[in-house]
Amino acid sequence: MVSKELTRLDEASRASASEQLRFLIKHHLRYQPFLPPCRSAPSRFFATIRITIIFCLHSTMSLLSRRATTISISALSAFAGLTLYTQTVHKNRQQKMLPSYEATFSVPLKCESCVSDIKSALSKIDGITLTSFSIPNSLISITSTAAPSAIISTIQSTGRDAILRGSGAPNSAAVCILEVPPSQTSTSHPPKSQTSNYESPVRGLARLIQLSPKLTLMDLTVTALPKGRYSISVRRTGDISHGAKSLGDVYSGEDGEREGELGVLEVDETGRGNLVGEVAWRVWELVGRGMCVRPVEGAEDGRGEVVGVVARSAGVWENEKVVCGCSGKTVWEEREEMVGKRMV
């Protein structure tokens, strides 16, 4: 295929510059059969411009050189053009386009200086397309493809705390609190005077945001597990009483068309690990099901595993509470409690 195109280019090199340009416009798309498809129209446009410039330079050179030199320049020009085009295509393919979602975050905002600091920090995150700030409400709205944990940690890097208030469209978000199975924790609760020394069974949190009818963003973080590799899976039931044993088998959908194994999590020496990725599930299919995070090796006895039940969470603009109606605590007091329980 390439040799035929080079022959055609050589024949065209003996024509006038205008004829060569017409040849390029007519035949440059013939290179596509042996190149990856280009998904972006702007990338295709700029790649074509690059090839056009190269061939125009070649046209000028061909008028000033002998035929033998022209053949060499033709081959070199074609190779350079294809190289540039291929590099553009590959770069574009690496920039995976995901549907964006909107999320709201409670952040202490006192003045425009706070807004400026956070804007500067958020500008370093890929995938953010729109941000809006409300100083009176201490609220930030962000439209992006980035994981909520990445946005929260970036805001925290400015010295301010952040709480995810809502994400995605209504009925398209869920959360799963990951904890040590009750069968592996003490059945007796400590006296109130000792609660400060009581170790919470909570070990992490998984957020799920549906981006499209068949694609959901999973943002899973654990904060207190031994170093190692852990497998993550969806389980058939939501019974966490005895861990993986009571959760049932790995769940692959009613027709077995889903992937129940969601990935492998790497936990470092500090006990923290984070896994962000897309899973081919709809949120409503996961609500009420169990999630299990267990060591890749040596998990037969259930030690080291954490489990949870997927529950629906608020969509964007669906959670406007400032004080919890159940506990009477403010959202910031609840945040401190979550930190204390190692949920975040």
Describe this protein's structure.
It is a single chain. This protein has an 8-stranded antiparallel beta sheet. The chain has helices spanning 2-13, 17-27, 41-63, 67-94, 112-122, 148-156, 244-247, 283-286, 331-340; strands at 101-106, 128-134, 139-144, 163-167, 173-179, 202-212, 215-222, 228-235, 261-267, 273-279, 290-295, 306-312. Helix 2 (17-27) runs antiparallel to helix 3 (41-63) and helix 3 packs antiparallel against helix 4 (67-94). It is globular and about 55 Å long. The model is unreliable at 23-44, 66-73, 82-95 and 187-198 (pLDDT under 50). Helices cover 33% and strands 25% of the residues. The chain has 344 residues and is of the alpha+beta class.
Give me the Rg, rounded: 28 Å
Binned strand content: 15-25%
SS element count, helices: 9
Helix content percent band: 25-40%
Unreliable sequence segments: 23-44, 66-73, 82-95, 187-198
The largest beta-sheet arranges its strands as 9-8-11-12-5-6-7-10
Count of extended strands = 12
Order of helices and strands: HHHHEHEEHEEEEEHEEHEEH
What is the CA-CA span between the terminal residues?
Answer: 56 Å
Q: What is the overall silhouette? A: globular
Instruction: Determine the mean pLDDT.
Output: 75
Give a short account of the largest sheet.
Answer: 8 strands, antiparallel
Structural class: alpha+beta
